[in-house]
Amino acid sequence: MTTPEPLSDEELDELGELAQAATPGPWFVRSLDDEHAMNLVAVSTTPDTGLAERWPNFDHREIVAATLVQHPRYVDAADERWDENAQFIAAAREAVPRLVAEIRSLRSQLKASSSEGRSRGAN
Question: Whole-prediction pTM value?
Answer without folding.
Answer: 0.82
